[in-house]
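Continuing the batch. This is chain 6 of the set; chains 1 through 5 are on the previous pages. Same settings as before, nothing changed between runs. Recording input and output for traceability.
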Amino acid sequence: MDEHLEDILQAVHPLDPIELPLPDAQGCVLVEDVMVPVALPPFDNSSMDGYAVRVADVTGATEEFPAVLTVIGDVAAGSEGLPTVGPGQAARIMTGAPLPPGAEAVVPVEWTDGGTGGAPATGMRAASAAPEGATGEVRVHRPAEARAHVRARGSDVQAGDLALEAGTVLGPPQIGLLAAIGRGTVRVRPRPRVVVISTGSELVQPGEDLGAGRIYDSNSFALAAAARDAGAIAYRVGAVTDDATTLRAAIEDQLIRADLLVTTGGVSVGAYDVVKEALSSVGDEDEPGSGIDFRKLAMQPGKPQGFGSIGPDHTPLLALPGNPVSSYVSFELFVRPAIRALMGLKDVPDTQRPRVRAVLAADKPLSSPAGKRQFLRGRYDAEAGTVTPVGGAGSHLIAALAHADALLVVPEDTTAVEPGGELDVVLIG
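Output for chain 6:
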Protein backbone atom coordinates (compact mmCIF):
# COMPACT_ATOMS: atom_id res chain seq x y z
CA MET A 1 0.00 0.00 0.00
CA ASP A 2 2.68 2.51 0.96
CA GLU A 3 4.72 1.66 -2.13
CA HIS A 4 1.68 2.15 -4.37
CA LEU A 5 0.93 5.56 -2.85
CA GLU A 6 4.59 6.56 -3.16
CA ASP A 7 4.56 5.67 -6.86
CA ILE A 8 1.43 7.79 -7.36
CA LEU A 9 2.84 10.84 -5.59
CA GLN A 10 6.12 10.60 -7.48
CA ALA A 11 4.27 10.57 -10.79
CA VAL A 12 1.67 13.26 -10.07
CA HIS A 13 2.95 16.84 -10.29
CA PRO A 14 1.31 20.14 -9.32
CA LEU A 15 -0.65 21.90 -12.05
CA ASP A 16 0.86 24.98 -13.67
CA PRO A 17 -0.07 28.29 -12.01
CA ILE A 18 -2.55 30.68 -13.61
CA GLU A 19 -3.93 34.12 -12.77
CA LEU A 20 -7.58 33.96 -11.74
CA PRO A 21 -10.22 36.51 -10.69
CA LEU A 22 -11.11 36.21 -7.03
CA PRO A 23 -14.50 34.48 -7.55
CA ASP A 24 -12.79 31.75 -9.58
CA ALA A 25 -9.89 31.33 -7.15
CA GLN A 26 -11.91 29.82 -4.29
CA GLY A 27 -10.48 26.45 -3.31
CA CYS A 28 -7.23 27.08 -5.17
CA VAL A 29 -3.73 27.20 -3.69
CA LEU A 30 -1.67 30.39 -3.73
CA VAL A 31 1.70 30.18 -5.47
CA GLU A 32 3.03 33.51 -4.22
CA ASP A 33 3.17 35.51 -1.02
CA VAL A 34 0.61 38.32 -1.03
CA MET A 35 1.64 41.52 0.72
CA VAL A 36 -0.66 44.23 2.10
CA PRO A 37 -0.48 47.38 -0.07
CA VAL A 38 -2.67 49.55 2.21
CA ALA A 39 -3.45 49.48 5.90
CA LEU A 40 -6.74 47.99 7.08
CA PRO A 41 -8.72 49.88 8.07
CA PRO A 42 -7.22 52.68 5.95
CA PHE A 43 -8.42 55.40 8.36
CA ASP A 44 -9.65 55.81 11.94
CA ASN A 45 -13.36 54.99 11.94
CA SER A 46 -16.28 54.51 14.28
CA SER A 47 -17.29 51.08 15.54
CA MET A 48 -20.71 52.37 16.67
CA ASP A 49 -23.59 54.57 15.61
CA GLY A 50 -23.36 57.62 17.87
CA TYR A 51 -21.57 60.94 18.21
CA ALA A 52 -17.96 61.91 17.61
CA VAL A 53 -16.86 64.07 20.53
CA ARG A 54 -13.90 65.59 22.34
CA VAL A 55 -13.07 63.76 25.57
CA ALA A 56 -12.94 66.93 27.67
CA ASP A 57 -16.48 67.84 26.66
CA VAL A 58 -18.01 64.66 28.13
CA THR A 59 -15.80 64.25 31.19
CA GLY A 60 -18.00 63.80 34.27
CA ALA A 61 -21.23 63.49 32.28
CA THR A 62 -24.10 61.74 34.08
CA GLU A 63 -27.81 61.24 33.55
CA GLU A 64 -28.50 63.93 36.13
CA PHE A 65 -25.92 66.31 34.69
CA PRO A 66 -25.47 65.45 31.00
CA ALA A 67 -22.99 67.16 28.74
CA VAL A 68 -24.91 69.32 26.27
CA LEU A 69 -23.16 69.56 22.89
CA THR A 70 -23.97 71.34 19.67
CA VAL A 71 -24.49 68.95 16.75
CA ILE A 72 -22.63 70.31 13.72
CA GLY A 73 -23.59 67.67 11.15
CA ASP A 74 -23.61 64.05 10.04
CA VAL A 75 -20.68 61.77 9.16
CA ALA A 76 -21.75 58.70 7.21
CA ALA A 77 -19.62 55.85 5.84
CA GLY A 78 -17.87 57.11 2.72
CA SER A 79 -18.22 60.75 3.74
CA GLU A 80 -15.84 63.34 2.36
CA GLY A 81 -15.29 66.91 3.46
CA LEU A 82 -15.55 66.03 7.15
CA PRO A 83 -16.63 68.66 9.66
CA THR A 84 -14.14 69.66 12.35
CA VAL A 85 -15.36 69.00 15.88
CA GLY A 86 -14.49 71.93 18.12
CA PRO A 87 -15.00 72.53 21.86
CA GLY A 88 -18.59 71.92 22.90
CA GLN A 89 -19.47 70.30 19.60
CA ALA A 90 -20.35 66.80 18.36
CA ALA A 91 -20.87 65.19 14.96
CA ARG A 92 -23.43 62.46 14.46
CA ILE A 93 -21.48 59.46 13.13
CA MET A 94 -22.40 56.09 11.66
CA THR A 95 -20.62 52.74 12.03
CA GLY A 96 -17.63 52.59 9.67
CA ALA A 97 -17.56 56.34 9.05
CA PRO A 98 -14.22 58.15 9.33
CA LEU A 99 -13.51 59.91 12.62
CA PRO A 100 -13.76 63.65 11.86
CA PRO A 101 -10.92 66.06 12.71
CA GLY A 102 -10.95 67.26 16.30
CA ALA A 103 -12.92 64.28 17.60
CA GLU A 104 -11.18 61.98 20.07
CA ALA A 105 -13.84 59.37 20.84
CA VAL A 106 -17.28 58.11 19.89
CA VAL A 107 -20.16 57.90 22.35
CA PRO A 108 -22.81 55.33 21.33
CA VAL A 109 -26.27 56.74 20.67
CA GLU A 110 -27.50 54.70 23.66
CA TRP A 111 -25.40 56.99 25.90
CA THR A 112 -27.28 60.02 24.64
CA ASP A 113 -30.79 61.35 24.25
CA GLY A 114 -30.44 60.89 20.48
CA GLY A 115 -30.75 64.64 20.01
CA THR A 116 -34.32 64.64 21.33
CA GLY A 117 -33.66 66.62 24.47
CA GLY A 118 -34.62 63.86 26.90
CA ALA A 119 -33.38 60.71 28.66
CA PRO A 120 -30.90 58.24 27.11
CA ALA A 121 -32.24 56.47 24.00
CA THR A 122 -32.81 52.72 24.43
CA GLY A 123 -34.10 49.77 22.40
CA MET A 124 -35.95 50.69 19.22
CA ARG A 125 -35.67 54.35 20.12
CA ALA A 126 -31.89 54.11 20.13
CA ALA A 127 -31.89 52.37 16.79
CA SER A 128 -34.18 54.98 15.19
CA ALA A 129 -32.79 58.03 16.95
CA ALA A 130 -30.78 60.72 15.22
CA PRO A 131 -32.37 61.62 11.90
CA GLU A 132 -30.22 62.63 8.94
CA GLY A 133 -29.05 66.22 8.73
CA ALA A 134 -28.53 66.37 12.47
CA THR A 135 -28.60 69.83 14.00
CA GLY A 136 -29.39 71.32 17.36
CA GLU A 137 -28.13 69.76 20.56
CA VAL A 138 -27.44 66.33 21.98
CA ARG A 139 -27.23 65.39 25.65
CA VAL A 140 -24.51 62.86 26.55
CA HIS A 141 -25.14 60.96 29.77
CA ARG A 142 -21.82 59.11 30.16
CA PRO A 143 -18.13 60.04 29.82
CA ALA A 144 -15.85 58.47 27.22
CA GLU A 145 -12.15 57.74 27.27
CA ALA A 146 -9.85 58.73 24.44
CA ARG A 147 -10.24 56.46 21.37
CA ALA A 148 -13.38 54.82 22.80
CA HIS A 149 -15.31 53.01 20.04
CA VAL A 150 -12.72 54.03 17.46
CA ARG A 151 -11.16 51.47 15.13
CA ALA A 152 -7.59 52.63 14.63
CA ARG A 153 -6.04 52.88 11.19
CA GLY A 154 -4.02 49.69 10.54
CA SER A 155 -5.48 47.87 13.56
CA ASP A 156 -6.23 44.87 11.30
CA VAL A 157 -3.14 44.83 9.08
CA GLN A 158 -0.43 47.34 8.25
CA ALA A 159 0.85 48.20 4.80
CA GLY A 160 3.77 45.89 4.04
CA ASP A 161 2.49 43.04 6.22
CA LEU A 162 2.23 39.52 4.81
CA ALA A 163 -1.44 39.00 4.04
CA LEU A 164 -1.31 35.38 2.86
CA GLU A 165 1.64 33.11 2.24
CA ALA A 166 2.23 30.84 -0.72
CA GLY A 167 0.60 27.45 -0.19
CA THR A 168 -2.56 28.88 1.40
CA VAL A 169 -5.84 27.33 0.26
CA LEU A 170 -8.22 30.17 -0.57
CA GLY A 171 -11.46 29.83 1.37
CA PRO A 172 -14.12 32.51 1.92
CA PRO A 173 -12.16 34.42 4.63
CA GLN A 174 -9.04 34.49 2.47
CA ILE A 175 -11.01 35.65 -0.58
CA GLY A 176 -12.49 38.39 1.61
CA LEU A 177 -9.05 39.53 2.78
CA LEU A 178 -7.73 39.67 -0.79
CA ALA A 179 -10.69 41.80 -1.82
CA ALA A 180 -10.23 44.05 1.23
CA ILE A 181 -6.64 44.84 0.26
CA GLY A 182 -7.64 45.56 -3.32
CA ARG A 183 -6.58 42.40 -5.12
CA GLY A 184 -8.90 41.62 -8.04
CA THR A 185 -6.89 38.65 -9.29
CA VAL A 186 -4.44 36.24 -7.72
CA ARG A 187 -1.88 33.71 -8.97
CA VAL A 188 -2.84 30.17 -8.00
CA ARG A 189 -2.72 26.57 -9.04
CA PRO A 190 -6.17 25.75 -10.42
CA ARG A 191 -8.45 23.16 -8.88
CA PRO A 192 -7.78 19.81 -10.58
CA ARG A 193 -10.40 18.55 -13.04
CA VAL A 194 -11.21 14.97 -12.09
CA VAL A 195 -13.26 12.75 -14.39
CA VAL A 196 -14.95 9.74 -12.77
CA ILE A 197 -16.03 6.83 -14.98
CA SER A 198 -17.83 3.79 -13.63
CA THR A 199 -17.91 0.56 -15.64
CA GLY A 200 -20.31 -2.34 -15.78
CA SER A 201 -23.16 -3.47 -18.05
CA GLU A 202 -25.21 -4.16 -14.92
CA LEU A 203 -25.26 -0.51 -13.85
CA VAL A 204 -28.39 1.63 -14.13
CA GLN A 205 -28.56 5.36 -13.41
CA PRO A 206 -30.59 6.38 -10.34
CA GLY A 207 -34.12 7.30 -11.32
CA GLU A 208 -34.32 4.74 -14.12
CA ASP A 209 -36.14 1.42 -13.97
CA LEU A 210 -34.16 -1.34 -12.31
CA GLY A 211 -34.39 -4.52 -14.37
CA ALA A 212 -33.51 -8.05 -13.35
CA GLY A 213 -29.85 -8.51 -12.52
CA ARG A 214 -29.22 -4.76 -12.49
CA ILE A 215 -27.99 -2.42 -9.75
CA TYR A 216 -27.88 1.34 -9.48
CA ASP A 217 -24.60 3.11 -10.22
CA SER A 218 -23.55 4.51 -6.85
CA ASN A 219 -19.78 4.58 -7.29
CA SER A 220 -19.60 7.40 -9.82
CA PHE A 221 -21.80 9.61 -7.61
CA ALA A 222 -19.84 8.83 -4.44
CA LEU A 223 -16.43 9.31 -6.04
CA ALA A 224 -17.40 12.51 -7.85
CA ALA A 225 -18.65 13.86 -4.50
CA ALA A 226 -15.42 12.74 -2.84
CA ALA A 227 -13.39 14.50 -5.52
CA ARG A 228 -15.26 17.76 -4.91
CA ASP A 229 -14.78 17.29 -1.17
CA ALA A 230 -11.03 16.93 -1.76
CA GLY A 231 -10.93 20.26 -3.61
CA ALA A 232 -11.32 19.19 -7.24
CA ILE A 233 -13.74 20.06 -10.00
CA ALA A 234 -15.50 16.76 -10.65
CA TYR A 235 -17.07 15.44 -13.84
CA ARG A 236 -19.13 12.28 -13.61
CA VAL A 237 -19.50 10.05 -16.68
CA GLY A 238 -22.44 7.66 -16.80
CA ALA A 239 -21.65 3.98 -16.52
CA VAL A 240 -19.86 2.45 -19.51
CA THR A 241 -20.80 -1.06 -20.61
CA ASP A 242 -18.42 -4.01 -20.39
CA ASP A 243 -16.82 -3.48 -23.75
CA ALA A 244 -13.11 -2.67 -23.99
CA THR A 245 -13.39 -0.67 -27.21
CA THR A 246 -16.29 1.42 -25.88
CA LEU A 247 -14.47 2.07 -22.61
CA ARG A 248 -11.25 3.06 -24.33
CA ALA A 249 -13.16 5.49 -26.54
CA ALA A 250 -14.98 6.96 -23.51
CA ILE A 251 -11.70 7.51 -21.67
CA GLU A 252 -10.06 9.12 -24.70
CA ASP A 253 -13.06 11.43 -25.13
CA GLN A 254 -12.58 12.69 -21.56
CA LEU A 255 -8.88 13.51 -21.86
CA ILE A 256 -9.62 17.02 -23.11
CA ARG A 257 -11.12 18.05 -19.75
CA ALA A 258 -9.23 15.83 -17.31
CA ASP A 259 -6.23 16.52 -15.09
CA LEU A 260 -6.92 13.15 -13.47
CA LEU A 261 -9.02 10.18 -14.58
CA VAL A 262 -10.60 7.76 -12.11
CA THR A 263 -12.28 4.54 -13.18
CA THR A 264 -14.14 2.17 -10.90
CA GLY A 265 -14.75 -1.51 -11.62
CA GLY A 266 -13.18 -3.96 -14.03
CA VAL A 267 -9.71 -4.24 -12.49
CA SER A 268 -9.79 -7.77 -11.07
CA VAL A 269 -9.25 -11.09 -12.88
CA GLY A 270 -12.76 -11.86 -14.13
CA ALA A 271 -13.81 -12.45 -17.71
CA TYR A 272 -15.53 -9.05 -17.86
CA ASP A 273 -12.88 -6.90 -16.21
CA VAL A 274 -12.75 -4.53 -19.16
CA VAL A 275 -10.62 -1.78 -17.61
CA LYS A 276 -7.63 -4.10 -17.56
CA GLU A 277 -8.45 -5.28 -21.06
CA ALA A 278 -8.87 -1.74 -22.41
CA LEU A 279 -5.85 -0.20 -20.72
CA SER A 280 -3.29 -2.96 -20.25
CA SER A 281 -1.74 -2.14 -23.64
CA VAL A 282 -2.21 1.61 -23.54
CA GLY A 283 1.52 2.30 -23.32
CA ASP A 284 2.53 1.83 -26.93
CA GLU A 285 5.01 3.43 -29.32
CA ASP A 286 2.59 6.25 -30.14
CA GLU A 287 2.40 7.25 -26.47
CA PRO A 288 5.91 6.87 -25.01
CA GLY A 289 6.07 7.02 -21.23
CA SER A 290 2.42 6.14 -20.76
CA GLY A 291 0.85 2.92 -19.55
CA ILE A 292 -1.25 1.49 -16.73
CA ASP A 293 0.20 -0.89 -14.17
CA PHE A 294 -2.32 -3.22 -12.51
CA ARG A 295 -1.42 -4.52 -9.07
CA LYS A 296 -2.65 -6.57 -6.15
CA LEU A 297 -2.08 -4.67 -2.92
CA ALA A 298 -1.73 -6.07 0.57
CA MET A 299 -4.91 -4.37 1.80
CA GLN A 300 -8.58 -5.15 2.42
CA PRO A 301 -10.81 -3.93 0.91
CA GLY A 302 -9.23 -2.62 -2.29
CA LYS A 303 -6.80 -5.36 -3.27
CA PRO A 304 -6.91 -4.81 -7.09
CA GLN A 305 -5.60 -1.39 -8.15
CA GLY A 306 -4.31 0.23 -11.29
CA PHE A 307 -2.24 3.36 -11.86
CA GLY A 308 -0.48 5.01 -14.76
CA SER A 309 -0.99 7.63 -17.43
CA ILE A 310 -2.79 7.84 -20.73
CA GLY A 311 -2.88 10.11 -23.77
CA PRO A 312 -0.43 12.59 -25.30
CA ASP A 313 -0.28 14.68 -22.11
CA HIS A 314 0.28 11.61 -19.92
CA THR A 315 -2.86 12.30 -17.91
CA PRO A 316 -2.76 10.32 -14.63
CA LEU A 317 -5.32 7.52 -14.34
CA LEU A 318 -6.23 5.59 -11.22
CA ALA A 319 -8.25 2.42 -11.71
CA LEU A 320 -10.18 1.45 -8.58
CA PRO A 321 -12.11 -1.73 -7.78
CA GLY A 322 -15.86 -1.80 -8.29
CA ASN A 323 -17.32 -2.77 -4.92
CA PRO A 324 -18.67 0.42 -3.31
CA VAL A 325 -16.67 0.26 -0.09
CA SER A 326 -13.53 -0.83 -1.93
CA SER A 327 -13.79 2.08 -4.35
CA TYR A 328 -14.41 4.66 -1.62
CA VAL A 329 -11.63 3.41 0.65
CA SER A 330 -9.29 3.35 -2.35
CA PHE A 331 -10.26 6.91 -3.18
CA GLU A 332 -9.45 8.10 0.33
CA LEU A 333 -6.09 6.34 0.38
CA PHE A 334 -4.87 7.01 -3.18
CA VAL A 335 -7.00 9.45 -5.18
CA ARG A 336 -7.38 12.09 -2.50
CA PRO A 337 -3.58 12.38 -2.07
CA ALA A 338 -3.21 12.60 -5.87
CA ILE A 339 -5.71 15.47 -5.99
CA ARG A 340 -3.93 17.30 -3.18
CA ALA A 341 -0.63 16.85 -5.01
CA LEU A 342 -2.12 18.29 -8.21
CA MET A 343 -3.32 21.27 -6.19
CA GLY A 344 0.26 21.95 -5.12
CA LEU A 345 -0.24 21.50 -1.41
CA LYS A 346 2.91 21.12 0.61
CA ASP A 347 3.63 17.88 2.46
CA VAL A 348 0.74 16.03 0.83
CA PRO A 349 0.82 12.96 3.11
CA ASP A 350 0.38 15.32 6.07
CA THR A 351 -2.61 17.11 4.51
CA GLN A 352 -4.75 13.99 4.34
CA ARG A 353 -7.55 12.97 6.64
CA PRO A 354 -6.70 13.32 10.34
CA ARG A 355 -5.51 10.19 12.12
CA VAL A 356 -5.94 9.48 15.82
CA ARG A 357 -5.40 6.61 18.23
CA ALA A 358 -8.63 5.26 19.70
CA VAL A 359 -9.76 2.47 21.98
CA LEU A 360 -11.86 -0.26 20.37
CA ALA A 361 -15.38 -0.30 21.81
CA ALA A 362 -16.78 -3.66 20.71
CA ASP A 363 -18.34 -6.82 22.13
CA LYS A 364 -15.87 -9.13 20.42
CA PRO A 365 -12.38 -8.99 18.89
CA LEU A 366 -11.80 -7.69 15.39
CA SER A 367 -10.21 -10.26 13.13
CA SER A 368 -8.00 -9.35 10.19
CA PRO A 369 -6.19 -11.41 7.54
CA ALA A 370 -2.46 -11.82 8.07
CA GLY A 371 -0.28 -9.78 5.73
CA LYS A 372 -3.00 -7.30 4.78
CA ARG A 373 -3.79 -3.86 6.11
CA GLN A 374 -7.51 -3.86 6.80
CA PHE A 375 -9.83 -0.85 6.83
CA LEU A 376 -13.12 -1.26 8.68
CA ARG A 377 -15.92 1.26 9.07
CA GLY A 378 -16.69 2.79 12.45
CA ARG A 379 -18.02 5.66 14.54
CA TYR A 380 -15.49 7.72 16.49
CA ASP A 381 -16.32 9.27 19.88
CA ALA A 382 -13.81 12.08 20.36
CA GLU A 383 -14.86 12.77 23.97
CA ALA A 384 -14.45 9.16 25.05
CA GLY A 385 -11.53 8.45 22.72
CA THR A 386 -13.22 5.29 21.44
CA VAL A 387 -14.24 3.88 18.08
CA THR A 388 -17.11 1.46 17.46
CA PRO A 389 -17.29 -0.77 14.35
CA VAL A 390 -20.23 -0.19 12.00
CA GLY A 391 -21.39 -3.09 9.83
CA GLY A 392 -19.18 -5.95 8.76
CA ALA A 393 -16.05 -6.26 6.65
CA GLY A 394 -17.92 -6.87 3.37
CA SER A 395 -16.86 -4.51 0.58
CA HIS A 396 -20.46 -4.19 -0.65
CA LEU A 397 -21.89 -2.80 2.60
CA ILE A 398 -22.48 0.77 1.48
CA ALA A 399 -25.16 1.42 4.12
CA ALA A 400 -22.59 0.84 6.87
CA LEU A 401 -20.21 3.21 5.11
CA ALA A 402 -22.90 5.90 4.98
CA HIS A 403 -23.26 5.73 8.77
CA ALA A 404 -19.52 5.71 9.49
CA ASP A 405 -17.30 8.67 10.17
CA ALA A 406 -14.03 6.79 10.56
CA LEU A 407 -11.94 3.97 9.15
CA LEU A 408 -10.40 1.54 11.64
CA VAL A 409 -6.91 0.55 10.53
CA VAL A 410 -5.66 -2.93 11.41
CA PRO A 411 -1.96 -3.32 10.47
CA GLU A 412 -0.59 -6.11 8.25
CA ASP A 413 1.05 -7.92 11.16
CA THR A 414 -2.07 -7.91 13.37
CA THR A 415 -4.70 -10.62 13.02
CA ALA A 416 -6.92 -9.61 15.93
CA VAL A 417 -7.67 -6.51 18.02
CA GLU A 418 -9.25 -7.17 21.40
CA PRO A 419 -11.97 -4.92 22.86
CA GLY A 420 -10.21 -2.19 24.81
CA GLY A 421 -7.18 -2.36 22.53
CA GLU A 422 -5.84 0.69 20.71
CA LEU A 423 -5.68 1.14 16.96
CA ASP A 424 -5.23 3.89 14.38
CA VAL A 425 -8.38 5.59 13.09
CA VAL A 426 -8.74 7.69 9.94
CA LEU A 427 -11.41 10.36 10.42
CA ILE A 428 -13.54 10.70 7.28
CA GLY A 429 -16.63 12.40 8.72
